[in-house]
Amino acid sequence: MDRLRAFLKRKDIEISLKRYGIDALGAMAQGLFCSLLIGTIINTVGTQFHIGFLTQTVATIAGADYTVGGLATAMSGPAMAAAIGYALKCPPLVLFSLIAVGFAANALGGAGGPLAVLFVAIVAAECGKAVSKETRVDILITPLVTIAVGVALSAWWAPPLGRLAMRLGELIMWATEQQPFVMGILVSVLVGMALTLPISSAAICAALGLTGLAGGAAVAGCCAQMVGFAVISFKENRWGGLVSQGIGTSMLQMGNIVKNPCIWIAPTLTSAITGPLATCLFKLQMNGAAVSSGMGTCGLVGQIGVYSGWVTDVAAGVKPGITAFDWAGLILISIVLPAVIAPVINLALKQIGWVKDGDMKLA
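^ thats the sequence. predicted structure below, dont judge the formating
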């Protein structure tokens, strides 16, 4: 056992919730952002502003036409796997081999491809690290083991993992359609909290394919956390804090939450209010890329995702047009209501002594 521990330490193979549930998951979201999300944004910008070189076909592969954004989107599997490998501190040969693994897992995982990539890439990466530089023909053995393990697991695990993620996502979306008030609260609160925790709400939403009303509730929850923390901590952090949290991430407050969990009450209660308003009153739906559901106001990706969904629905004839009520709902849920509700709740918490000035000061 001691020899095994020494071997794992030498190979930097750390079997832990932090390494796999936080580091790898967070990196996967970055890979998704740099492929699927950026591709979606490029396509949306090209379509809306009639930019020819962004909407025209730049490559045709196996009979399928690809735009610039389409090529970026098509690389989501490899991008996720490479990002996971980077987070797991893989040596170069393992990292590069994960590109093929990510493609296989994402393709075979179908709608639940991101979840399949997460599991398969982690195992393939660790197996590749285990054999890396252990032989004189490392340049052959390491890629061979990494790709063989990854593709074999993709064929074995990816389809059922994909179906599981798809069914779970469908169940959440169905439940939200049936009980928009209750599920609006649950989805908004849970996804919003995931965004602030050192895990990836974006990766979770992508893995579950969370769109529709449930996606709208997720957007509401994320915005409540980001805008909520940005506004209630303005006295301590001023404009820099407003920007870094409002369009960056509320995860910056995690250290302060550990010191005083009560500072998390106002943004979380705000998400419990804005979530059902999004689902029941404004019927806010995320019909863009599922990963956008877990991004909130980070780079305004959540709002761009909602807008791209509107555009797609209008083009498909599902939605007659984008109305002023649509825009009002998006702006109110994303920015105005969190900026108003969270400070009111936080003021009450200060009056009863649960929160004090300086509790949300960022280092």
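The longest strand covers residues 59-61.
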